[in-house]
């Protein structure tokens, strides 16, 4: 099984979540299926997402799309996301 773990630091969780939710169908079409979403205990604007990945190439293309910077700006992202692709044995 393949996964993508992502960490985002955002200005306002509610505003970020609205933009994130608006991309749910595009995520699914890119082989990304959200399994868990967590917020930091010490900083609720630190967000972690775990996706199951069914198509690694589509997922990589999705996160590196030229449309990403505009979506990040709209969502209030404060730092470049940390993204890790992983697999379980």
Describe what this molecule looks like in 3D.
The chain is of the alpha+beta class and 89 residues long. 36% of the residues lie in helices and 34% in strands. It is globular and about 35 Å long. The longest helix is centred in the N-terminal third of the chain and has 10 residues, at 13-22. It has a single domain, classed as 2-Layer Sandwich (Alpha-Beta Plaits). A 4-stranded antiparallel β-sheet has the order 2-3-1-4. β2 and β3 form a beta hairpin.
| Strand adjacency order, main sheet | 2-3-1-4
Total number of beta strands: 4
Low-confidence stretches: none
- The proportion of residues in beta strands is 25-35%
How large, in whole angstroms, is the Cα Rg?
12 Å
CATH class: Alpha Beta
Structural class: alpha+beta
Q: Biggest sheet, open or closed, and with what strands and sense?
A: 4 strands, antiparallel
Mean pLDDT across the residues is 94
